[in-house]
Amino acid sequence: MSKRAFLAVPLLLAAVACAPVDEEEPDAAADPTPTDASQCEKDNLPVLTEGRLTIGTDSPAYEPWFSDNDPTNGKGYESAVAYAVAEELGFGADEVTWVKVPFNTSYKPGAKEFDFDINQISITPKRAEVVDFSDGYYQAAQAVIALEGSPVAAVSSIAELADYNLGAQTGTTSLTAIRDVIAPANDPAVFEDTNAAKQALMNDQVDAILADLPTAFYITAVEIPKSSIIGQFQPESGEQEEFGMLFEKGNELVPCVNEALATMRDDGTLDAIQQEWLSDVVDVPELQ
């Protein structure tokens, strides 16, 4: 899907979050800003490979976060953010290496084969016990996707969703939202990835699936044209959920990435990337 085609799809900048999962909301960001400015100079950065920044994400890498399933092209919201952070840290595009990191293994404890992972990973206290996160770089609501004409397409509240068969990708906050917020009568269907969830919806194996709002817009506009977003909601008491870059626990690179993100917010870079890859207006009903 080209950027031009995607830009025709309205997306919500204000809300945030989907991706994969745990039950609680983040308390705070990661680590404090370094006191020694020289710590964040390129030659002093604690990276895996001298002179290179190694970034992880899953494969396939989905729109609108990555374009053409190619994180290296700088296209798509997360790819663009990653390269902008790399630039702030002093790395050129040719000094960035991408590695495949399955989503469900990214937030497990232990040594990492990347400097940071960017893959719509929600910041949660449970995950933060074993890995570190950057400050949030994006927020998004949960969205409910159903086929046009389906009975579930007429619901107007979270409580009504409990009567239907719902599904989401394993390890995601979408799945947690089904279990903890909607609490359906039937156990939710759990899928290995978003593609499997979409296929189940098209095959009428589930009445609706959940995903973060930007992903839901892409699914309904491009991948399943006869589907629609019936509503959106925030997982916990209306509080917003954030995506953060994920690091090995204790990684001293975190404050430097936070400093880069702060600069990108202040100078408008982060907002410009959002405007380029995610549209800024959307009118999706709020499910209460």
Mean pLDDT: 87
Strands, count: 10
Query: Which CATH class of the largest domain applies here?
Result: Alpha Beta
- What low-confidence regions span 5 or more consecutive residues with pLDDT below 50? 1-32
What about the largest sheet? 5 strands, mixed
Let me know the CATH homologous superfamily of the largest domain.
Periplasmic binding protein-like II
Radius of gyration over C-alpha positions, nearest whole angstrom:
18 Å
Helix-and-strand structural type: alpha/beta
Oligomer: single chain
CATH architecture of the largest domain: 3-Layer(aba) Sandwich
The percentage of residues in β strands lies in 15-25%
The geometry reads as elongated
SSE sequence, one letter per element: HEHEHEHEEHEHEHEHEEHH
Number of folding domains? 2
Distance between the termini: 33 Å
Ordered list of secondary-structure elements with their pairings:
Blueprint: H1 3-7, E1 53-57, H2 77-89, E2 96-100, H3 103-106, E3 116-117, H4 125-128, E4 131-139, E5 142-147, H5 158-161, E6 166-169, H6 173-182, E7 189-191, H7 194-202, E8 208-212, H8 213-223, E9 227-233, E10 242-248, H9 254-266, H10 269-277
Parallel strand pairs: 1-2, 1-3, 6-7, 6-8
Antiparallel strand pairs: 4-10, 5-8, 5-9
